[in-house]
From TrEMBL:
N-terminal signal peptide: 1-18
Keyword Lyase belongs to the record: no
Domain Secretion system C-terminal sorting intervals: 161-223
Keywords: Signal
NCBIfam families attached to this UniProt entry: Por_Secre_tail
Keyword field contains Signal: yes
Protein's name according to its UniProt entry: T9SS type A sorting domain-containing protein
InterPro entries: Secre_tail
């Protein structure tokens, strides 16, 4: 029982760790301290929402007045946003501090500051943050993506393409909710793009050679897996 209890605690700790994002940045406004944002749910687009908790409007830190933050997806603008509450604890009219402009729509969680470009919203901060969020002036770790293709959320080795080499049809397994399959030539030219939910592609009309397939699902974009047409 003791071993089982310890194992359960370890598993719970790992789960909790994967649901948090640690942030330090915009030090002139938010002071030189770390903040932990906890996953509080998902939005209607399947993107995770992270908030510093509890949010009660009484965590002062200068600058905007409070240090209660929220990371969420803005589908209208196709970007992740780092928001600061105005002090009411409801994020109804938050301050937009940073917003991402790269590595945006693939994963269910935001990109880290290495692969994402997080721009300072100077219309709110008046430039007090010292520019875009970078490794030189901040950190964002935990449940953030570390690659553009969100491989930290998906094991690419789980995908199988068969037969390979093939002459008529290739089949793709290991993924659910496939939306689109694209075939590229060895020199990067787009050969075909198909709305395909079955994971099957007819390649009978392709000349023999090496090709790559790009797979798009509801959550992932897995790029350029090689196959051979005989």
């Amino acid at each position: 029982m003791k071993k089982l209890f310890i194992l359960s605690v370890i598993c719970l700790m790992n789960f909790l760790f994967s649901q948090t994002i640690d942030f330090k940045g915009c030090i002139p406004l938010f002071e030189n301290q770390n903040y932990t944002l906890n996953k509080t749910g998902t939005d209607s687009f399947g993107k995770n929402i992270y908030i510093t908790t509890p949010v009660n409007g009484d965590q002062p830190c200068g600058g905007v007045g409070v240090c209660e933050f929220k990371l969420q997806w803005n589908n209208t603008s196709s970007r992740w946003e780092f928001l600061a509450d105005q002090g009411d604890g409801d994020f109804v009219n938050p301050f937009l501090i940073y917003y991402s402009t790269t590595a945006n729509g693939v994963g269910i969680n935001p990109p880290n500051i290495t692969i994402g470009t997080w721009l300072e919203n100077t219309s709110v901060t008046t430039g007090a943050c010292g520019g875009n969020l970078t490794n030189a002036n901040g950190t964002m770790t935990g449940d953030v993506r570390t690659t553009v293709l969100a491989v930290n959320e998906f094991d690419k080795s789980a995908i199988t393409i068969y037969p390979n080499p093939a002459t008529e049809v290739i089949n793709i397994t290991g993924l659910d909710n496939i939306k689109n399959l694209k075939i590229f030539s060895a020199d990067g030219k787009l050969i075909s793009s198909n709305i395909n939910t079955k994971g099957e592609i007819n390649i009978s009309k392709l000349p023999p050679g090496v090709y790559f397939v790009e797979i798009n699902t509801d959550r992932y974009s897995i790029s350029r897996i090689k196959f051979i047409k005989k």
